[in-house]
């Protein structure tokens, strides 16, 4: 289908806009199928570039039980069509989040997906216990963090441990619970099924892939943590294949597609692969308005695809 050039430059990121195409994700309606990806949105920074209520959802930086300082610097390195980061989940902790960022986001009428981080199963439980009575609309459990309960491996790489953790958290809250999957596994369909068996209402995928860069003058790793997570356009085909695979394994599970999205067409590709919605990450570090631009571009593309738009409104995914 010829979609022609996008009309991207005409939108006003602060002007209220009546989106025509929403998406129902785990029973909650997003006004459009585009959200921010965790760790690439901060209200103080992004609020200067667009009205946050213009997006389908805002996924926050990972929230931990106590403040975390993150990893030593340098924490980032450039890579071909992407970047490597080892920020280490720096954040001021759940109590600060509940007093500061969450009320501010809700006052701005954002649909808030609170991303939950933990270095142990107990960490996750403590954060979810505090969020259970909060104004957060959805929880997104980041199971890619190194986890001491699992010998330093992320819980998202072990289906048995993952199902156990998700079941424990499921019992603590009625809020829609998204489990964010890591691609650093042999078969992502297996961990997807484990999260579903534990009671996940939706899955988001993918988190970053393990990668590194070295400084050829010194022969040493550029990032102090040695390895980090690769994100950006370079990972888009990998993320699409993961969404496709998980959609085939779990035909009815709501899926949020993430990985290298920087245009409405990229987002559309994820919807055709079987995602119900998408999140935009690293693109916003290059172009802060990227998530809103992607939403506007996708809006036009969905105008010409009524069958897909209709499925998303009904909480369904594209059937190949
Ligand atoms: C600087 C940075 C920080 C991130 N922090 C988090 C985080 O706190 N929690 C999380 O679940 N994912 C985090 N991610 C992963 C992104 O949300 C996303 O899954 C990944 O970057 C792939 O999408 P992208 O290619 O659009 O960036 C982070 C990514 C970046 C680049």
Automatic annotation (TrEMBL):
Active site: 145 (nucleophile)
Signal peptide: none
Cofactor, free-text remark: Binds 1 FMN per subunit.
GO CC, any one term: cytoplasm
Record keyword Acyltransferase present: no
Annotated pathway: Pyrimidine metabolism; UMP biosynthesis via de novo pathway
GO MF, any single term: dihydroorotate dehydrogenase activity
Group of enzyme by EC: oxidoreductase
Protein localization: Cytoplasm
Primary location class: cytoplasm
Entries under InterPro entries matching the protein: Aldolase_TIM (IPR013785), DHO_dehydrogenase (IPR050074), DHOD_1B (IPR033888), Dihydroorotate_DH_1 (IPR024920), Dihydroorotate_DH_1_2 (IPR012135), Dihydroorotate_DH_cat (IPR005720), Dihydroorotate_DH_CS (IPR001295), Dihydroorotate_DH_I (IPR049622)
Binding site for substrate: 61, 85-89, 142, 207-208
PANTHER family: DIHYDROOROTATE DEHYDROGENASE (FUMARATE), DIHYDROOROTATE DEHYDROGENASE (QUINONE), MITOCHONDRIAL-RELATED
Protein family according to the UniProt entry: Belongs to the dihydroorotate dehydrogenase family. Type 1 subfamily.
Protein's name in the database: Dihydroorotate dehydrogenase
Name of the gene: pyrD
């Amino acid at each position: 289908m010829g979609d022609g050039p996008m009309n991207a430059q005409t939108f006003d990121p602060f002007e209220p806009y009546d989106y025509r195409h929403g998406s129902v994700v785990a029973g909650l309606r997003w006004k459009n199928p585009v959200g921010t990806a965790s760790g690439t949105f901060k209200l103080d920074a992004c609020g200067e570039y667009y009205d946050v209520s213009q997006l389908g959802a805002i996924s926050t930086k990972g929230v931990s039980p106590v403040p975390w300082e993150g990893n030593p610097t340098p924490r980032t390195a450039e890579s071909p069509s992407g970047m490597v980061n080892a920020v280490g989940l720096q954040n001021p902790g759940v109590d600060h989040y509940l007093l500061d960022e969450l009320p501010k986001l809700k006052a701005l009428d954002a649909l808030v997906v609170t991303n939950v981080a933990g270095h142990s199963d107990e960490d996750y439980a403590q954060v979810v216990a505090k969020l259970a009575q909060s104004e957060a609309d959805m929880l997104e459990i980041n199971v890619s963090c190194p986890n001491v309960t699992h010998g330093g491996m992320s819980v998202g790489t072990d289906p048995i441990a993952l199902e156990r953790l998700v079941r424990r958290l499921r019992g603590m809250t009625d809020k829609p619970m998204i489990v964010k999957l890591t691609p650093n596994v042999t078969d992502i369909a297996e961990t997807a099924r484990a999260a579903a068996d534990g009671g996940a209402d939706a899955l988001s995928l993918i988190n970053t892939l393990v990668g590194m860069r070295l400084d050829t003058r010194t022969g040493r790793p550029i990032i102090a943590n040695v390895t980090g997570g690769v994100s950006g356009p370079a990972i888009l085909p990998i993320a699409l294949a993961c969404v496709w695979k998980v959609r085939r394994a779990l035909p009815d599970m709501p899926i949020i597609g993430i990985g290298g999205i920087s245009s409405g067409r990229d987002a559309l590709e994820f919807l055709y692969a079987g995602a119900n919605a998408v999140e935009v990450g690293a693109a916003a570090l290059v172009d802060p308005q990227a998530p809103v631009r992607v939403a506007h571009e996708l809006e036009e593309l969905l105008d010409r695809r009524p069958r897909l738009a209709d499925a998303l409104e009904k909480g369904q995914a594209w059937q190949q």
